[in-house]
Amino acid sequence: MLVAGFPAGSFQTNCYVVAPAPGEECVIVDPGQDAVEGLDDLLREHRLKPVAVLLTHGHIDHMWSVVPVCGARDVPAWIHPDDRDLLSDPAKGFPGPARQMFGGLEFGEPDDVRELSDGAVIELAGLELTVDHRPGHTRGSVTFRTPLQDSQGEDSRVLFSGDLLFAGSIGRTDLPGGDHAAILRSLAKTMTLPDDTVVLPGHGPQTTIGRERATNPFLGDVAAGPSRGL
């Protein structure tokens, strides 16, 4: 499987492309601010054809470029219904004083928006992606997990964690729609994944479930349970 990405815009939000192999169809995860040029470069480099955009949540730093990306490629965007309103009104995701930064900016939905549901398995671009609703950072935050085969042919899995889980940290819950108790419940469910699960977060470097269980200071008792898998 091919996974490539880059940090987009001033928010440095990780935008990913995922495909079975170079020269195949792909999905795009979280096209953030000024992501179009970087995406075009990645798609050209790996000869990929996008078939969908997947959004881990509706915050502006993750979906800023969703309309131009979907429009240029004529592909749908997938988002959880609890965050769909943020596509056309991203200021709702910020406290009052911070909303002034949206002055003069206009946002809207792509022509084709499809809604994600907890536990759904979606098949796109020859990939099988499981959707897990993981609220707390926002009401509609989700993660995507998919099987992964390494260079030795060993089966593992990769998790696109959005702003739920980072290397050494977890998502903030102080913005509108955030809920600290909810994110702890979401993290508890996520930490049941096997230790070798590769975590590709919305910001910062990749990590693994095992590394975060052992070292992440924000997980505390959340990470203490055994790895049972999902």
TrEMBL record:
Keywords: Hydrolase, Metal-binding, Zinc. Residues 12-203 form the Metallo-beta-lactamase domain. It comes from the Bacteria. Pfam families: Lactamase_B (PF00753). CDD domains: metallo-hydrolase-like_MBL-fold (cd06262). The keyword Hydrolase applies. Its cofactor is Zn(2+). PANTHER family: HYDROXYACYLGLUTATHIONE HYDROLASE GLOC. This is MBL fold metallo-hydrolase. It comes from Sphaerimonospora cavernae.
